[in-house]
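Support reply, case 0932

Customer input (verbatim):
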Amino acid sequence: MKKFLLLFITVALLTLAACGNGEEENNATDTNKETNEEKGTIVFGQTPWSSTAPPTQIAKQILEEQGYKVEVKQVSQPVIWDGMKNKDIDFFMDAWLPYTEAPRWEKYKEDLVKVATSYENAELGWVVPSYVEENSIEDLKENAEKYDGEVVTIAEGAGIVEISQQLMEGENLEEHGLKLTPSSEGAMISVAQDKMDKKEPVVFTAWRPHSIFARNDLKFLEGQEEYFKADNVYVLSYKGIEKEHPEAYEILSNWSITIPELEAMISKNEQHGTSFEDLAAEWIKNNRDKVDQMIGE
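Our regenerated output:
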């Protein structure tokens, strides 16, 4: 009888302990859910440019580690800036200032803030392969027919396209038989790479970071310095973001990356098909100390 009573008490105590642990686990889970819900959702704007995807995916995964729900809207650059002004989009990781996006910044500067400098001295402009004889805009004027009278660029709305249009007008390039041909980034690179593989002349718009520089020996044409100037690349958000999402703002205010790092990621994506999500996870793993500093650990 005593053994039975002792067994009964032991089972009862174990059952109560298990229930208690279950309640503690449930309470902890509920607390985590409440914490995540309190942090809310962060929305990033991401352009189709290859330079935008790696920083956006890295930032997304870092914030998700901290319990945020994160959405990425893949839309054009003008839509992103409007979205930030209206607080529909919280962050944009790829704003080129003070030169390339100067008109857009002038329009939105009362509504937006620079959160961090992603990287500095980002070159951009018209490039040609090093094997062609032409080295300048003047050379291009005199040999437009060699290039089929075409300067290939990306979709209209991007700062590099708007500056290219200014260059066309300022240097009277249409009178020399040249025209600007907008397309998607992918289409532009496909056309340029096909011509370069055949050692044919081609002129197109390019910027760093971009894997095209890792695959080819390119040169920026001389004589466009009045139009294209090396920029810094910033993380942008709307004014008041530090109050709306203080932790996310604090984390991203410590963000930075190098141009070679970005070009290596873009190259892996293009050559091996590695997703930017996987490349971002790899970057975070390889830069854990830096990430811990960003999140304050």
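We compared this against your earlier run and they match. Two observations from our side: Confidence is low (pLDDT under 50) at residues 1-36. The first helix runs from residue 2 to 39. Please reopen the case if you see a mismatch on your end.
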